[in-house]
Amino acid sequence: MTPQDNEELLDATDLKLLELLQSDASLSNLELARRVHVSPPTCLRRVRRLWEGGWIEKQVALINPQKAAAQLGHGLEAIVEVTLDRQGEEALAAFEARVVADDAVRQCYRVSPGPDFVLIVGVPDMPAYLALQQRLLTSDANVRNVKAFFSVKRGKFAPRVDLRRP
């Protein structure tokens, strides 16, 4: 069952729970229940149903990039556009499977029109980016064009889904 199949099952309380969890997944069940005005057992049951229904994929900690850079070195983030020679489903799936398996690839999107893929990659430095480029792009005979943009400043990062109904 896909999340779209469950759409009718979500009510205002479920949507509020998802919104709260997107903002702060560390909230206790007691605090979540208080904020959505339900009992703690009801809240726990609803959150469990959201997990089981596929509405919640995973819970992660978002690391402050400035603090990480101060401790670990600057780091390099790039937005990379990739165009393939052959765009059949098999070729697209093969390229996607290869790049998503690489730890340096943080995000991978199939896009249209324009390039076939947009990748968000993170590496320690330019030599590491060049190694990634060779490993994933230059060595692939189906890659026709690559255009990389290097981030100099992150203005906004909001890993959330808009839950408002149109």
From TrEMBL:
Keyword DNA-binding: yes
Segments forming a coiled coil: none
Keyword set, alphabetical order: DNA-binding, Transcription, Transcription regulation
CDD domains to which the protein is assigned, alphabetical: HTH_ARSR (cd00090)
Pfam families: AsnC_trans_reg (PF01037), HTH_24 (PF13412)
A biological process from GO: regulation of DNA-templated transcription
Domain HTH asnC-type: 10-77
InterPro entries attached to this UniProt entry: ArsR-like_HTH, AsnC-type_HTH_dom, Dimeric_a/b-barrel, Tscrpt_reg_AsnC-like, Tscrpt_reg_AsnC/Lrp_C, WH-like_DNA-bd_sf, WH_DNA-bd_sf
GO molecular function, one term: sequence-specific DNA binding
One GO cellular component term noted in the UniProt record for this chain: cytosol
PANTHER family per record: LEUCINE-RESPONSIVE REGULATORY PROTEIN, TRANSCRIPTIONAL REGULATOR AZLB
Protein name in the entry: Lrp/AsnC family transcriptional regulator
Upper taxonomic lineage: Bacteria, Pseudomonadati, Pseudomonadota, Betaproteobacteria, Burkholderiales
